[in-house]
What we know:
By secondary structure, the chain is of the alpha+beta class. It has seven helices and 25 strands.
Amino acid sequence: MMEREGARLAKMMKGKVNEPVSSLKVQPETGPAEMGKEEQDICRRHPDDLEESAQNGFPKILASLTKDHPKKLEDCSDDKTVIMKDLTVTITNDKTFPCKDKLKQKKSLSERTPVNFVVKTMSFNRVEGHLLYSTSITSPYALDRPVGIMEHSSGVILVSDTFNDRVLRLDENGGPINFAGPSMSFRRPSALVELEDGSIAVICFNFIAVFDAKGNYLKVFGKELLQKPYGLCLSEDGKLMTVETAYPGTLVIVTLCPELEYELSRVRVSLGLQPLRAELSKPRFMACYKDKVYVGDLGLNCVYEVNYTTGCLLNTFGSAGTSPGCMVDPSGITCDPDGNIYVADSRNHRIQVFDSCRRVICIIDVDYPLNRPSGIYLTRNENLFVLNYWANSLAKYRLKYKYI
């Protein structure tokens, strides 16, 4: 091709020696520049279509030109016009370029769909709770308005028998084993957590008691630090957190080191309440998820979401009522590994599930009725323990998650 182009230019220049070089008209190479305006637009917008056209249409064009114009390809000085004309006709007849309607469709789709558009779908919108067992423990282990519950890594279940001022150890089927810390004097124990070394901490009226998995007393600390603490949870780095209830209208979140037995931080969170509502506020149960702590307010029927490192009140969700998302006396709170929040809606006798954005997902559909649920505990294998405050009983459910 280059040799033919050079020969043709030499022939043209032979008869035009005296003309300036700038006046010579060199024919452009064959390509999209000589196509029609519509074809040029198509090439610019859809290079993939052009490549497909080149693969499928050009061999046919070359065969047609070689057969019909063998001499013109070699001798005619105006051969590019002929080639371009045949090229245009062949492409139009073979319909290798998309039609205008298809181009408009592609353009409209690209305009409607954002590049970074991501749809976040909910993994479930229905939870069923199937009863595994329910126990009404008789004397001498009978419960009196129990509040806190947890399952130890050994399989032992521990219950804060709050108004009996004791902690009860149960086997995996809910049968009583013994009381924890027989030499220890509890006072209104509420929440319990398992520490990293396998020991158990329980929050009492003004201190934290620690005992081992077998119920043997280990230590007590915090008597000079805490003012009416209630609720207990464990942060991701193994630190204990509780909320003090002695300051109306303010959450005081205290972080403690269980190994060294001293206070690490004390964060005051103003709730921005009017004096009357501040007097009604009763922050009690709590749960942790990453750098957030959730605290239920029994008096104001809501849940606070707080960043416990900065003391910033992030959100408040829930209000008095019976509709989904509303609550009366929110009690036990727990979180699953995805950050969904489970709240015992105590006086509505139900448990609600909220997502990490605090939107209500569902009310757990249980096949055995709840009777003012207080403490709740979610296990890693999707079992849910529930304390029925009025019935003084324990129920264990197997949860099934569904998306309908």
